[in-house]
């Protein structure tokens, strides 16, 4: 069981750093992270911690995927900078493995194709950028907030936790208790989809997981 | 005074849609949005509403920027898919205009160069993607939340508002009043930097702007 990251560029290094930091915090199961770069050249462009196992090879090649033990990976992350390759590799991985496949694409138009190919999650990197560029025009503070809460490396973090002990209790009571006893700020809950901004006196429904904000560990804001 | 978006790909269409939606909501000053594509080919790949003025031309060419009336733009947004071009165009725009320049780059390494060139905001699209790919592994619910709050088109929205009337009042009192009277959920405040998760009984400091979450207008969750 390992986490396999396939691709090139900033997405790869950021993803690996965030995975390592989640493992350190105990939020992600300790397992090796393996990175497969398509070429030596792409490998040289990305800085990675020493403990990361690195492979070089064409990910559209079945043998390369076998060498990366894709059949035993729990998660395969694709950041290929090429949406048609992403579709192709997703199809191959899904045939060779039960791994969850999480894919970065460059174009919104590729989302449906990727989902059809079996991708469990598709992130459109440039759409996110476009939204934040627009927000920079009329609400730069919001961009600072998003930038912070999407990175576990600084400031605050959004995270989810089991909500069992709060089921049936009013939202405001849970908010108070989480803040006073654990210094967590209740943002909302998750029940199939995010429910944010609920009425303060409404009880938290059974089955809900809680979405909370915390000072992130690395800055000691806890 | 207009908003000038220069570039290609998904970032351009997403950015234009978010700007239009902010104008509709009255959060952004009504002014024309002008899009400059580097080529006819790139123009064809992007769907834009009819009312958007479109230009075609090489943005590294001074005459093209003059044609786009860069001197009279309030904001220039660059989504060029080429970080060295982004540096070059930023330098040119900053010499020709007082516009704020907001730039998407593909690599983290380009951030300092762009800031040196005068960019007012730099968004690293692939780093964001990398973070969300990692979060998809260990907290997919958080990715749903981020995906929702970064897009004004669906679900919830994070936004900032004047906080004057709440200065000096305890955080929890402001939270209650905003929720009960305006159905806004207080996430934190902004005073030079985001302050989220503050003590509930601490007063909101003078000068703070409030960061709030609301059901977004387009879904009628208000
Ligand atoms: Ca953070
Ligand atoms: Ca939203």
Short description:
By secondary structure, the first copy, chain A, is α/β, with parallel strands linked by helices.
Q: Would you spell out the secondary-structure blueprint of this structure?
A:
The structure is a homodimer of 222-residue chains.
Chain A: E1 2-7, H1 10-24, E2 33-37, H2 40-45, E3 53-56, H3 62-67, E4 73-79, H4 83-96, E5 100-105, H5 111-117, E6 121-124, H6 125-138, H7 140-149, E7 156-162, H8 171-182, E8 185-190, E9 194-196, E10 209-215
The complex binds calcium ion (2 copies).
One calcium ion (CA) is lined by residues 148-149, 151-152, 154-157, 216 of chain A.
Categorize the overall geometry of chain A: globular
| Average pLDDT metric of chain A | 92
Give start-end ranges of low-pLDDT stretches of chain A.
217-222
The most extensive interface, with participating residues per chain, is: A-B, 82 and 82 residues
| Strand adjacency order, main sheet of chain A | 3-2-1-4-5-6
Order of helices and strands of chain A: EHEHEHEHEHEHHEHEEE
**Tally of strands of chain A:** 10
- Alpha-carbon Rg of chain A, integer: 20 Å
* Class from helix and strand fractions of chain A: alpha/beta
> What is the oligomeric state here?
homodimer
Q: Helical proportion of chain A?
A: 25-40%
> What fraction of residues of chain A sit in β-strands?
15-25%
Helix count, DSSP H or I runs of 4 or more residues of chain A: 8
The biggest beta sheet of chain A is recorded as: 6 strands, parallel
Question: What is the straight-line distance between the termini of chain A?
Answer: 31 Å
Give the ligands present.
Answer: calcium ion
